[in-house]
Every structure is written in C-alpha cells, then in structure tokens.
Amino acid sequence: MTAFDRLRGRPGKQPAFGIVGTPDPVEPPRKIEPAQYGLPPRNDIRTDVEGPDPTGDAAVAAIQRGDWRSASEMLAGSGADWERRTRLVGRVGGVAKRDDAWLTEWLATEPDDSVAHTVAANALTAIAWAIRTSAPSQNVSDEQWRGFFRVMRQAPEHCRRAAALAPSDPTPWIELLVIARGLQYEQDQFRTVWREVVSRAPDHLGAHLFARIYWQPEWFGSTELHDAFIEDATRDRPMGSLFTLVRLCGVHDGEPRSEAERRAYYREAALNLVLDEATADLAVAPPDHPYAATQRQMLAFLLTNAGRHTEAYAQFKAIGAYCGSSPWWSYADPLGTFLSTRAAAVMGWADAGRPTLP
Amino acid sequence: MRRIVHAAHVIVLLLGFYVLCIGLLAALVAADVFVTRQAAASAALDREVVIAYVLTAVVAYIAVRGIFVSIRVRDRNLRGIAVSERDEPALWRHVEFLAREVGTRPPKRIYLVADVNASVWDNAHLLGLIPGQRRMKLGLPLLAGLTPAQFDAVVSHELGHFGNRDLRFGALDHRAAANVASAMSAARGRRLAKAGLRRGLWIPGHNTVEAMFDLYGRHVLAVTQAARRRQEYAADRVAADIAGHANAASALRELRVIATALDFYLDKYATVGLDRKLVPMPAELFGGFAAMLAEPERRKQLDDVRRNQVADPPAAFASHPPMHERIAAIEALPPDGRPADTSGARAMTLLANPSAVMTAVGPKLLGSDAAGAQAVDWDTLVTAASAARAARRSDPLRLVLAGMYGKPVSLGGLLDAIDAGRLDEILEELPASDGASAARITGPVAREAAKTSMTPMVRSWALAELASQGRVRWRHSWADSGGVLDIDAELSAGLSAALRALVALRPDARAMRRVVYPAGVAA
Which of B145-159, B313-327, B395-409, B428-442 has the lowest mean pLDDT? Predict the structure, then answer.
C-alpha cells in the first residue's frame, strides 16, 4: 500500500489475475446469517409456491406419476371453492410445460370433463408464455411470437368447452381472462369475459388480480382505467377479504424506474396508508385464506422499500421458506431479489436497535 | 497545338500497335528460318523446329485477331431491331431534328434495342482511323422510362460526341480506346473461353503475347483517358443545352433507376418460369416492363431508389466519368430557367407502332436462355413460379419425411405419419429455429415451438399440392411479384382449419386429408 492509497483509504493494487474484479473492500456487502434471525437459508426456500400448499403439492406429485385421476379428484374436491380451484388448476396446468402426456390422456379419456378443459386452457397458456419467454416484447423473435399466438389461440376453445359443460363454474372464464390479455382482446371483448366472471364469482380475488393487469397502461388499459378498476374492486370489501392485495399489486407495478423517484414514491403518505390498511386486512384475515401468503410476500417487499423494516422483518418471518409469487416473479432473479430484500429488512431492523416485532 | 500533338501521339500509338504485331511476327519468322537452317545441318534439332513453328502459328493467330478485330458493330450482335424511316417516321424526324440542333449529321441507321443504354458510332475502319457509316442504337427501356425531354438529353449527348468541331480529335481518342480494348479482349480469347475451348488447351507462349498486348492496351487507355472524360463532359454540356439542365441531370439520374427496375423486372417477372421453360408472351416482355413502371407501389419503390443513389466505385479505365460527378457538373451550370419535364409522358410516345417494336425486341431481353421456351400469359407464369416456390418452402419437412420413409413422399405421406402417431418424431428431426435453439427449451414447449415452425411448411406443401390439382392458382400482380393467391373462400377456410387441427394439442390429420385429397384425388 502506498501512502497515497492510505490517504484515499483504498488498498494497494491487487495482482490482476481473476476474470472478475474483487469487491470494493471499503463497503463490504452486508450479509446476514438467516438462522440467527429465525429465517430459513437460501437452499430451503421454495420458488414454485408462495406458501404451504399441501393439496397442490399432492396434485402435482400425482400428475408427475402420470396419475391424472387423483389430481382430477382433488380438483373436484375443491367443490365450489372457486378460489382454491383456480389455484389448483394453475399448479396442475403448470406441469404441462415439462410434460403433458397426462393431459392428452385425460382429455382423450374424459372429453366431457370440464375441469380437464380448464386445466388444458391453463396448460396451453403456460406453454405459450414459455415459448414467448418473459423477455420484453421487442426482444421476442417473430418465430416466438408466432408460436405464442398459435398455442394461445387454442386455449379459448377449451374455456368454452369447460364453460358449456359446467355453466356455474367461473374458473374457465377466469382462465379466459388471462388468455384475453395474451391474445390482445379489445376492451369490450375483455369486459364481456369479465361480466361472465363476476356474474358467477363476484368475490373472486384471483380473478380481480388477473383482470387488473389487463387494465394497466402497459397492457391494454390506461392509468385512469387501471385506477378505476382498483377502486371498483376494493370498494366496500370487508376487512379480512384481502382485496387490499389488488391495490398492493398496483403499488408494486407503479414503482418508478429511477432510484431517486423510487425513494420519493415509497415516502408518500398515501402509499404508506395503503400499506397500513393492507397490514390490518391481513391481520384479521383467516390464516388459511388462499391469498394470505401472497399478501404477506407483497407486504414484505413494499414495507422494506418503504423503510418500514421492522414490519417487513415480521412478514418475512411469517413467510418462511417460500418465494413463489409476485412481486418476486417480476425480477430476472426472483430468489436473489427475495434474499436481498429480506436481508435489507433484517439489517434495517438491526440498525434500528432491534425493536420488538409487531 | 497541344491538341494536335496529342492526336499525333494517339495515331502513333495506334500505328504502333500494328508495328508491334508485325514486328513480333517478323521476329518469329526470322527465328523459324534460322532454326530450320540449323536443323538441316543437324537432325537432332527436329524438336526445336516443331516448337518454333507452333509458337509462330500461335503468335500469328493472336496478332491477326488483334489487328483485324474491329469495333464494327454487326447487326447480329445487337439485341434489337433496325427501324427504317417508314417504320418509325416520328422517331426519325425527331433524331434528325436533334442532330441539326447539335450540328452533326444524323445516323444512317437506327436500332431499337433491349439495353438500358443509347449510343452512336461510326463503323470505322483501320483501328478507327477512317470513319464509316454512322449508326445509332436506342434502348427501349429508356423509351419506356424517360420523359421525352430526358430522352432528348440522352440522344443529344450521343450526337454531341460528333457535333462539336473541337471534339473531332476527341472522337479519335474514343475510337482508339475502343479499338485497343477490343483487341485486348480478342487477344485474351474471350470467345474461345466462352465456348469452353480454352480450358485444357494450353497454347505455349500465349500468356506472354497476351501480357504484351495488355501492357500496350493499358498505355493507350491511360493516354486517352483524360481526353475521353473531357469529351463525356462536353457531350453532357450539349445535352444540357438542348434538353435543358434539369432534364439532362434527371436523365442521367434516371439511367440507374431504369437499370435497377429492369434488373428487378427480369429477375422477378420475366424469367421466373425459365427453369420450367416458360416465358411471357413476346408482346408482354416490354409491355410488362412499362406496366410495372406504371404501378403506384413500384413507383414509390423507384422513388426510394432515385433518392438513395450511391456514388459509383472509382474505376481505373472506365469509359465514362462517375455518374455523380457528371450530374454535379450539369447542376453546376448557370440556371437556364428551363423546368424539368414532369408531365409524366414517356418517350415511348415517339413510336408510331410501339406494340410491334416491343413484340420484336422483347424476346431479346431474355437471350438464348429462353430458346425453345413456351410463351404463356402472366397468370400461368406466376402460378408455375409460386407453386414451385411453395414446394421449395416445404423442403425441410419433405426431407425429414423422405428420411423416415427412405424415399420422397407426397403430402399424404406426412398425413399417414401423423395418423401413425409419429408427429413428435418428425418435430424432433425438423431443424430448430434459431430462437428455439437459443432458448434451450425442451418437452412440450419445444414441441409446440417446432409445430409452429412446421405449420407454414405444411401450408406451402398443401398449396403446391392444390396447385398441381388445379384447385388454386396465383393471379399476376405488378405490385407483388409472388402474385396473389387465388383460392376459393371455402377451400381457404378449410385449409386453415385443417392446419390448426394438424398441429393441435392432439394432432388430427383427417381434415387435411379431406381438404387436399377429397374423394377421387389420389394421394
């Protein structure tokens, strides 16, 4: 180390051997030891689900054994709990990206099973998005777009079949909500689908979460339509229904890109009021609410960014070893984002003198 | 004075060419005589005698070709027809008028040809030292693409080479260069090479003689270069004076545009059926070119070509200065107040009998490749070409199927394979698209991506099959060289539905079989 380096507080030159530089020793990255804070380590964290889902796990395991009949029974077992059925359809349909022989067999064996068609619609949507990839649209090749549309265009037919076979079931219509966004439905076309959904399941939170995305200005709505949708969705909802999640998702998607703007955004009183309300909503929601885990993930993320580290840490503790949902899915490295956000929350809490958790 | 010295220099160079040839021959004959005498004394020299004689014969052949080759343009070398005053009185009168304006004698003969060019020449004798009968050829593509004023500029430029008294010596340079250039190429044996005789036939000493001709020729070209370029600028000046600056400049610009359009036309329209020995009707060959130029869509494209002209690459011995420099020179002239001709009229209106001329010259556009070809209407031509293109588009898929069956199969073979549950096998064999291989996708995602790449191939294959059954055709279009698919609405809907079923989650070939092979059509 030269005297000059010492003055600048920098170490002497390192022999330049590595292909990557050494980290700046002035500001070592802060790391936490998760176990010391009652948090699960990286390797234990599941990225496929946002919280415990024993039924979903069992259905996926059955499907992977080729036992679609058991999965079909579990789906039927969800009865008129459309919220749970929608989530189960998503778990089962997602398997088709890796293997879909079971699905063709199911459809061939029971061509009049409405659930099979709903799952097929979900599976086609998943495959279509896997072909398209989640890259920004300008980076998607013509061939990928063609594949996306060709596969996606096959999905509505399955929704229609399912809806015809089970007229009271909203889940085929909810699948169509997602498909409509992929197939770039006109607003009136989309509203038609939406009316079919709310006439069957007006309180379906999942449906509202899907529909909100369509109304974003980046998709096929506008800031005004998007905000109006959130107001309509959340109006007169009882505490514990977790409809505040619709608003949380809007807050997350509305994050400005630049760091300075982001800081200001999270300091806004209105935003913090939304976080208060959502925290209270979650506190009185039944613990087995199908969206409790997602609400927690969303809150953990937003509270950390808002500098409310103690509350965020409490949410991370309650989350445990799961990070398979929004907001993490919107990042190139969901698990990495989850871990760094969690570390920031914990360190913020530690820096604040380790106050008692709420 | 300097001009006379230069002219003398050129004449000496031309005469020197003869001296070179004759001197070479004389030296060789002397050597022959010497060797023959020696051989009489010693029988061991027989081989050398033979070599010397052969060498002499070769040099004699090349030198004689070089001397007697002329820049005479023979009728049979022209890609066109001669038109008499009786055939085309208006054109003749117009050319004679322009000749008077320029101040030179009009040509004795006018040819209308298939080239994007116009020229005037005197059928000169003795390496261009003695002028002969004056002739003019006019490219029909120019008449189709230039306005009357632009056409006047082109003709005036050509006549301008002879018109100006000051340019008389310049004409000598021009002839000298043309002569030496053709002597050079004759010495190189272009025609022999073309006929395929040069290959494998090694003539001793040929290269040396050729190199000598080349060296001499390059010297002549270099000496005459400056004068020839000056002459082109002067001829452009004549054109600008007669047709107006704006028209002269735009005519030069237009030449490249017409050449581009004609190349495109020949490539995309006139010759698309050549590999199946199908050509357009003789009257349509030029008629089509004119029609394509009139198509609004093509006019827009040609506007782009006109706007985006690039400068010529520099060429050491090009006969003309670079086009952009010639245009700049005309535009640098003081304004003459004469506007550009924007009437939209074409010089073709000078012709009394355009359809007869177009019918006679049209086939010359295609040359010998079209010999024995059948003349058909445009719709037939585009149907044959587009059906062949559709078939080619499905080649990767046909190859996979041929590999599976061990022989090429029809579309029915693909449908059979899908019925037999072998679609996944086919999809795996199909070359992956760049995107798919880059994304490293597997399983159902890869399979569905491959189906997407396969779909247009199956469609093309089906269209080729339907075309061969006469159930679809393509309608000719000047806006789209591939033609417009003419397919019955019901058949089109049926084909799309059949395609979707073929690549659905559960592939089903039945609909495609019904569409392509209805009752009575064999697979």
Answer: B428-442
* Cβ partners under 8 Å of residue B327, min gap 6: B249, B252, B253
Q: How close B447 gets to chain A, by Cα (Å)? A: 10
pLDDT value at A347 more than 60: yes
**Shortest CB distance from B445 goes to which of A97, A104, A154?**
A97
- CB contact at 8 A, A229 and A254: no
Which residues in chain B have Cβ-Cβ distances shorter than 8 Å to A109? Answer: none
Cβ(B26)–Cβ(B39) below 8 Å: no
Alpha helices, H only, A32-141: 54-64, 68-77, 82-94, 101-109, 114-132
Cross-chain CB nearest to B435 (options A108, A127, A141): A141
Partners of residue B444 in chain A, C-beta under 8 Å: 96-100, 127
Q: How far is CA B40 from the centre of its chain?
A: 57
**Contact indicator for A204, A243 with CB cutoff of 8 Å:** no
d(C-alpha B293, C-alpha B402), whole Å:
44
- Name the strand (E) or helix (H) holding A205: helix A205-214
Nearest to B452 among A96, A130, A146 (CB): A146
CA distance B377 to B387: 16
Per-residue confidence band for B125, with pLDDT thresholds at 50, 70 and 90: low
Which candidate from A141, A144, A154 shows the least CB-CB separation from B505? A154
**Cβ atoms of B361 and B139 closer than 8 Å:** no
Q: Which of A63, A64, A97, A122 to mutate to test the interface with B (most CBs of B within 10 A)?
A: A97
d(CA B511, CA B501): 7
pTM of the model: 0.72
pLDDT digit string, tens, across residues A288-297? 999 999 999 9
Query: Taking 70 as the threshold, does the pLDDT of residue A48 lie above it?
Result: yes
- Residue B255 to chain A, least CA–CA distance (Å): 38
B77 CA to chain A: closest CA distance, Å? 50
**Is A127 in contact with B503 (Cβ distance < 8 A)?**
no
Whole-number pLDDT of residue A60: 96
* Banded pLDDT at B119 (limits 50, 70, 90): confident
> How many whole angstroms separate alpha carbon A137 and alpha carbon A132?
9
- A85 pLDDT band, cuts 50/70/90, is very high
**Would you place residue A13 in the very low, low, confident or very high pLDDT band (cuts 50, 70, 90)?**
very low
Chains A–B, number of C-beta pairs less than 8 Å apart: 61
CA distance B80 to B89: 18
Q: B194 or B380, which is more confident?
A: B380
pLDDT at B511 over 90: yes
Between β-strands B109-113 and B80-83, what pairing exists: parallel, antiparallel or unpaired?
A: antiparallel
How far, in whole angstroms, is CA A160 from its chain's centroid? Answer: 26
Element (H, E) at B60: helix B46-68
**Which chain B residue has the Cα nearest residue A140?**
B435
Cβ-defined contact of B452 to A143 (cutoff 8 Å) = yes
Q: What's residue B51's pLDDT?
A: 77
Q: So what's the ipTM on this one?
A: 0.81
A53 vs B: CB within 8 A: no
Annotated domain spans of chain A:
23-45+227-358, 54-203
According to DSSP, the residues that pair with B130 across neighbouring strands are B125
Among A residues 108-147, those touching chain B with beta carbons less than 8 Å apart: 108, 120, 124, 127-128, 130-131, 133, 141, 143-144, 146-147
Give the closest-approach CA distance of B265 to chain A in angstroms: 30
Whether residue B157 contacts residue B174, with contact meaning beta carbons closer than 8 Å, is answered with no
Query: Per residue in A49-69, pLDDT tens?
Result: 999 999 999 999 999 999 999
Is 50 exceeded by the pLDDT of residue A348?
yes
Q: Which of B428, B446, B436, B455 is nearest to A153 (CA)?
A: B455
Three-state secondary-structure class, residue A9: coil
